[in-house]
Amino acid sequence: MARAAAASGKPTVTTSVEPPLMAALKTKMRWHEARQAVLAENVTNASTVGYRAHDLRPVEAEEGGVGVARTAQGHMTLASSAGVDRDESRSTFERTPDGNSVVLEEQMIKAAQNQMDHQMAATLYAKSLGLLRTALGRG
To answer: How far apart are CA 121 and CA 76, in angstroms?
Structure first.
């Protein structure tokens, strides 16, 4: 079909309308990938003199976009989301005598939470694709 359109001289236009949930999941997965790289850099520089640990700011849902909401106390939340049970105000002031602020235990916990959240977003993305395929009769 594309060859026939190209041969006839007509431009081929491919439009892709992505549901908001799919776009939000892709954004979340990219953020987790970038965060994993930052956390790995922190672990790599754990013995570097004067190195300060870094982290990414949480990705925010766009206005009118899809976000995670905890509507009841018994509902589960993402490990990295700011839920009522999480204390986000805590920052690390631990430093080694050489000025390094990387605490390996904290970095490994963050990396594990990040990996679980990325896996959840990837699973939801795959399930959503399966639902779309079924709705289109291709599943």
So the answer is: 15
For 10-58, what is each residue's pLDDT tens digit? 666 555 678 898 999 999 999 999 999 999 999 999 999 999 999 999 8
Amino acid (1-letter code) at residue 6: A
Q: pTM of the predicted model, to two decimals?
A: 0.68
d(CA 123, CA 131): 12
Compute CA 115 distance to the chain's CA centroid, rounded to the nearest angstrom.
9
Could you tell me which of 96, 100, 67 has the C-alpha nearest to residue 82? 67
Tell me the CA distances in angstroms from 22 to 31, 123, 127, one per residue in order: 14, 12, 10
